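Look at one such:
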Amino acid sequence: MPQTVTQLPNLPYKQERTDMAVAFRWTARLNMHESVANHFSLAVNDDGTQFLMNPNQMHFARIKASDMLLIDANDPETLNGPNAPDPTAWGLHGGIHRLCPQARCAMHVHSIHATVLASLADSRLLPIDQNTAMFFNRYVIDEEYGGLAFEEEGARCAQLFANPKHKVMIMGNHGVLVIGDSVADTFNRMYYFERAAETYIRALQTGQALRVLSDEIAEKTAQELDNYPEQSEKHLSELKAILDDEGSNYAA
C-alpha cells in the first residue's frame, strides 16, 4: 500500500515548490541528472529576480518541496550565507533571472543525447520528425564555451536568449539550458528536447541520408505544437499522480 503523502509545511510558494520537486524527481528517474550537479530555477516575483532553486549538491531523487532555496539575483552576498547555492548555479541561474525576465523557469542538465549533440562540430538539430520539428528555429547554439558557469559565463549565456523565440540553448561542449513560462512548460520542453536529440543522434548513427522536413512544414509543425492545448500541464499533473500513488515524499 502506498504511504500517505506528507504535505508541505507553511512555507511561501507552496505550489511552485511542489512543481519543482516533481520535476527534479522525474528528471532523476529519466536518468537525465548529473550526480549532485545541475540545477533548476523558478522565478517567483514580477521581474523574475527572486527565484527558487535546488540546494547545493542534493541528489535530484531526494529533493523535496521544502528543500528549495529562495534566491535574490541582485543580492551580492548570496554565496556568503549558510545555505548558499552552488557557485555555478548562482552564476548561470542568477544571470538568467537577472537578465532574462522572459525566463520564468530555467532547467540545465547534461542529459546524454543533448550533450552528444552539443559536442558535435555541427550542433544543429535538423527537423527529421515531429519531435525535432518542435524546436525548428526555437533554439540557439552557444559556440563559445568558456569553462564552468561562474558569474561571467552565466552573464554571457544569458545574453544569448535575446531572441524571445529561442527557448533552448544548445550549450556547445557542455549540455542544454531550457527556459519557459512555468515548471510544466519548461520540463515538458526539456523532456521533448532530449527525446528529439536521441532520435537525431540515432539517425546519424545509421550513416544513411536523413529525411529532412522542408522549412515550411517544420515551422508549421512547430507552431502547431506551440499551440497544442494543455499538454505540458497534463504531463506534470500525471507525473504528480504517479508519485502520489507511490507514496513519494516530494511534497513534504
About this structure: The radius of gyration is 18 Å. Residues 1-6 have pLDDT under 50 and may be disordered.
